[in-house]
Amino acid sequence: MAYTAKVGPSILSSDLSQLGRECERMMECGADYLHLDVMDGHFVPNITFGHPMVECLRRCIGPDPFFDMHMMVSRPEQWVKPMAAAGANQYTFHLEATTNPGNLIKEIRESGMKVGLAIKPGTTVEELAPWAGQIDMALVMTVEPGFGGQKFMEDMMPKVSWLRSQFPSLDIEVDGGVGPDSIHRCAEAGANMIVSGSAVVSSDDPRSVIALLKNAVIEAIQKRSLDR
């Protein structure tokens, strides 16, 4: 099994007036990567930020932190080159937002970024499956994308379990309502990349929460390898 446990705080939950400092604080508290939510007001109702802010953040916090861009946008093809130039490391687009996933995957790779492919709760995992061999990470949304603070959808866990059984070495990310109360269900299903927003960022002790989330995944990975 090639995958490892990683926790990526969702920085949209942080104090946006102090974003550079907040990113540094998350990395200092043990985050493995940073999850950046890009929303365009079309694919989802909300609007967040674009590549100019990513470029500023990269300048501010240096080359090391891994930027996982969650592109909740209607035309993901449009932003590949700008995001690569801004310093993004992984470009995670929504399957529902493109008619030509294969071409987009190729474009992302050619721009030097890793490829993530996300599905909304209403999209079946079988629709993602044909592309799983060409991507670095699959993102199973555990809330409807576009808003923070929603309740974790446990009925998405069979998607994660199915992906883990079919693609044993794939990075599988969960995003939405994930925190100490839901992490064990995610970890047992086979998720190894954990996006957590307010549970980490708004905590009095983010370091402890990140460690708790990560340890739950590590234990599940170890158990899975023993059961094989």
From TrEMBL:
Binds 1 divalent metal cation per subunit. It is an enzyme of class 5 (isomerase). InterPro entries: Aldolase_TIM (IPR013785), Ribul_P_3_epim (IPR026019), Ribul_P_3_epim-like (IPR000056), RibuloseP-bd_barrel (IPR011060). The active site is at residues 37, 175. Substrate binds at residues 10, 70, 146-149, 177, 197-198. It holds the Pfam family Ribul_P_3_epim. This is Ribulose-phosphate 3-epimerase.
